[in-house]
Write a structure and sequence with these properties.
Elements (H helix, E strand, L loop, with lengths): L1 E5 L9 E7 L6 E2 L4 E6 L4 E5 L4 E5 L6 E3 L3 E6 L8 H36 L9 H10 L17 H6 L21 H16 L2 E9 L1 H18 L5 H15 L5 E4 L2 E4 L5 E7 L2 E3 L2 E2 L7 H16 L13 E5 L18 E15 L2 E15 L5 H16 L1 H4 L5 H4 L3
Parallel strand pairs: 12-15, 15-16
Antiparallel strand pairs: 1-8, 2-4, 2-7, 3-6, 4-5, 6-8, 9-17, 10-11, 12-13, 12-14, 16-17
Helix pairs in contact: 6-7, 6-8
């Protein structure tokens, strides 16, 4: 019996996917649940598992866009597993060896031809005459760039007079190029970024935070925290809870425009930008306002691992009312992050660098971080955006008071 494998729905609102890569070949025997293809949607790259064991017949090519529910392959479930799998592998290995030998033979022939051509050249080939050399030196032109017309290829005075210097003449290095098709996910990201720039009144405001209090807390409690909860006490929990507090103070930042209406949310679903094998992904921490330091760190770790292993789902990246982007892990000192539509704000974290600052009239060295808030000026005024970022700064510089209620051990559940 031939089982028709159809494209499953990766998530709500997705109507088509793209075959990014077939992991098997036409006619292969596949086992049930074996990954047979990678498919790109406009939100994520997912693996397509075989629904049964049998011989597979492919019905779509790599790069094809296929509708959800469309048949992409057939699996003959009545076919027995071939006993000659090992023989097939050996045959492929022999073919590869033969191809290598043929390539070596071709290379030898090319070398023979090169030697034959070299014999035709003489000491005069490409060598300028004294008069020609003087002219070429004046024009700052390398003799190797000139085709000689004299005897045995010698460069004559006339050759040197005719040649003209070129601006930006290529050197001897490689000037090759490679073209590759953008994945559906990358194309969708590009569209969304351009849309965010064109359809929002996006502005960015900056501030900086002294990270010394957080450094001190982490140094004092990180070992106990990890021993008890199994996760590290990182910076993301401090920033996430600082964002939750600031969104309570400035609810317009936790809003978005839909048509002629402004929707304000009473919950905080915080999107966090993480790097995955297919590029940047933005999974969502749901109801961050209900999470503790331990809860945020555990959720960040879970989502980051799923993104790294390619297991993140569309549902885990859908929604979000505000985004945090940490370019500092890549060494970024300062940036203007782009809003993640339809959200109205995104906070950019940056590299922590020790810098001299004035403290009570004295110069001291402290670990400092630049903060950037990009926001949609259509619904967020300058006063609100600046106030929001100042609230973030205050929480980071006074975490024990503003984020932990004055009781560090209770907040960290130690």
């Amino acid at each position: 019996m031939a089982l028709e494998m159809k494209v499953p729905s990766p998530g709500e609102s997705i109507t088509e996917v793209e075959i990014a890569q077939w992991l098997v070949e036409d006619g292969d025997y596949v086992e049930k649940d074996q990954a047979i293809a990678e498919v790109d949607s406009d939100k994520a790259t997912l693996e397509l598992p075989a629904e049964a064991s049998g011989i597979i017949t492919l019905k779509a090519e790599e790069g094809d866009a296929v509708k959800v529910g469309e048949v992409v392959c057939l699996i003959d479930t009545d076919a027995a597993k071939p006993a000659g799998d090992e023989s097939k592998k050996e045959a492929k290995a022999e073919e590869k060896t033969a191809a290598t030998e043929n390539a070596s033979a071709s290379a030898k022939e090319e070398k023979k031809e090169e030697k034959s051509d070299a014999k035709k050249e003489t000491y005069a080939s490409g060598t300028p005459s004294p008069a020609a050399k003087k002219i070429l030196d004046e024009k700052d032109i390398d003799a190797s760039q000139v085709q000689g017309s004299g005897k045995d290829g010698r460069i004559t005075k006339e050759d040197a007079v005719k040649v003209t210097p070129s601006m930006g003449t290529p050197g001897n290095g490689s000037r090759g190029e490679t073209r590759s098709k953008l994945s559906m996910l990358r194309r969708k990201v590009a569209e969304r970024l351009v849309s965010a720039k064109n359809e929002t009144a996006m502005l960015t405001t900056f501030n900086e935070a002294n990270m010394t209090p957080i450094f001190n807390l982490r140094n004092q409690y990180k070992e106990d925290f990890k021993a008890k909860h199994g996760v590290s006490l990182g910076f993301m929990s401090f920033f996430t809870l600082a964002v939750v507090r600031a969104l309570d103070l400035y609810p317009a930042v936790n809003s978005m425009i839909e048509g002629k209406e402004m929707i304000t949310y009473d919950y905080k679903d915080i999107s966090i930008a993480v790097s995955g094998p297919k590029g940047l992904m933005v999974p969502v921490i749901r109801n961050a306002e209900n999470l503790t330091f331990r809860g945020v760190e555990a959720e960040v770790k879970r989502l980051a691992l799923r993104a790294r292993d390619g297991q993140i789902t569309v549902d885990e990246m859908t929604g979000g009312t505000f985004t945090i982007s940490n370019g500092g892990v890549f060494g970024s000192m300062l940036s203007t992050p782009i809003i993640n539509p339809p959200q109205s704000g995104i906070l950019g974290m940056h590299n922590i660098i020790e810098r001299p600052i004035a403290v009570d009239g004295k110069v001291e060295i402290h670990p400092m971080m630049y903060l950037a808030l990009s926001y949609d000026h259509r619904i967020i005024d300058g006063k609100e955006s600046v106030g929001f970022l100042v609230a973030i700064k205050e929480a980071l510089e006074s975490p024990e008071e503003l984020l932990m209620g004055g009781n560090v051990k209770k907040a960290l559940e130690l």
